[in-house]
Amino acid sequence: MTSVRAAKAQTALEAALAAVPGSQPRAGQQAMVSAVATSLASGESLLVQAGTGTGKSLGYLVPALASGKRVIVATATKALQAQLVDKDLPRLVKALEPVLGRTPTYALAKGRSNYVCLQQVHGGPGAREDEPESLFDGPASSLGSQVVRLREWAGETGSGDRDEVPFPVPDRAWRQVSVTARECLGTRCPDRVDCFSEKAREAAKEADIVVANHTLLALDVFTGVQVLPERDAVVLDEAHEFVSSVTDALSHELSTAETRRAVASAAGLVEPATQERLDDARDGLEGILQLVQPGWVRQLDAHSLDVLGLLEASATAACSEIQRVASASAPSANGSGPAGDEAELARCERARAGLLAVAEAAREIGTPSVSSAVYATADGATTRLRVSPLRVGGALASRLFGDTTVIATSATLTLGGSFRHIAGQLGLTWLAGSAFGEQGEEHDGRDPAAVQQVLAQEDPPPRWRHLDVGSPFDYARQSQLWVARSLPDPGRMAVSWAREVDALLVELVEAAGGRTLGLFSSTAAAARAAEAVRAATDLPILLQGEDSPGALQHRFASDARTCLFGTRSFWQGVDTPGSACQLVVIDRIPFGHVEDPLSKARLAAATDAGQNGFLQVTLPPAAILLAQGAGRLVRSTADRGVVVVLDPRLETAGYARVLLDSLPPFYRARSKEAVLASLRAIDADAAPVSPSGPAPSERRRAG
Fold this sequence. Notes:
Number of domains: 4
Helix content: 40-55%
CATH architecture of the largest domain: 3-Layer(aba) Sandwich
Structural class: alpha/beta
Shape: globular
Strand order of the largest sheet: 3-4-2-5-10-1-12-11
CATH class of the largest domain: Alpha Beta
Number of helices: 27
Distance between the termini: 45 Å
CATH topology of the largest domain: Rossmann fold
Largest sheet: 8 strands, parallel
């Protein structure tokens, strides 16, 4: 049966490629299609690394559509969601209709806050009251005029989707016409039948493919609130990012503003004594948040624990009282009831939801498990107390991989050439896995007795397979990697390193004739480098923060002489094939911030378990991000260029081999002179920059 499914998927792939002029069969894509089709047929989960240029979107979409199963595709970025829904899937369903004998369907699933709320627009009984910081002085104000335009648009739109608004929408204005999932009245909403979000969810229930994001999938799996339809399988694209989304979904936090709103919502719905206890608990929390320092909180003091206990108890008691008020206000069985029931019920529902969230957060922070960490974060004047799990693999193994078939894919899944790290992050048991087709990485020698012992357990872990299909690019011919080994160590001699980096960067950019994507470890480093190159050359230098990311990328792709300097958000997702990008400069190995509180807690936990915290916690995300950054260079079979890393530790440190083995197999340049000569030659032979289409602002106006 699995071979039949794989053959059908290959036929579907041929039809899909035939529908795109100039498409060529790719061995890696064909291998991925067969593996995904086999996995969907057998029910075994699959980890598949598909290098840049493989065409991994078709690699999982084609077999998913050919399988006849309902599949959730979850991505980490909106850019990939848009590519799937606006480009790949419309073309695919049309091409596959003759092969499948039916027209496959697809839908895009988004969180409720992405849609206009009709109660908010019309000021119905379920509308949220304006908060003091959100008030505006009528339609004459900037915010007021934006909200008026949104309300007019809400009467014309068929989708209510924020991404389809034909004019710029600030977050503050959108907040006035939308609600979060917690604020939504659900079945009690008078506009439920016409609700844009509910219509989108109903459409998704009937679709073969539902495209969502990692966060929505994590909420669906772990919160008990069904926000996605039932499915036969899940595809995790950009799977190296999924663990962070799950961590966020399983985290709880308390802040002054959110607690104030929750406590204020109980006014008039609870007994005076209960309200007084809520006010006292709120004031106590504010006192804690004023004193706590950002960072990992190893142990909360007795006073803080008392305050959190009072907050949990008072919020829980208030919820019970509010439930009694709601029951008394509910219409009778024949639908009759006192006037104003809908407004009172809406108010009760919203108040209970906010207080329940506060009570749960207070309980989790006050009594954290041994496998979680409490820490404080500061964003401007806002301090938050937060608790997050140190590991999510166990939860993923039982709640996701244990219930459904999962296809996890990315261009960067392996660490040093091995799937072992990502398997552990996702909660997969190593001995329950094997290479697809029995070729590839060994699993501890495949000791039959050890494997049988694992699989013979009363509750055995799910079986899974892995596959690395490589990349169609000839990296050794198309590209070079040079590590500036002679520079000072940036970890120990930061000042002298920065001075030499600026001078070297000017040489590199001039030799390349522009055409440079600079990826930096911090905003300050990017700004410093931009200032140095602007002072020494007449090349246009774009700096992250000076315009929107989309506008910056468009300008970079449109002019060969232009350089783009950015930080973490530019290490992934920048796709500039052709001659506009022929030099990628990475200033440092992208280790996480040393003061990140959750990382510090994870390091301590690894040390307590007798593990090497650096190798287990710090190195893996740095290796993946470094590979992602280096992967910005070669985006097509015609691309040529150089990746330069200005951190000598990539060659001199003891851990360097793990990082290098995680990168594409670039040709290794050995001297600055050779690199400068190569850059000049590549610049001289470069084809004209291809037109990059209209700017994002023009596309929005056209839409």
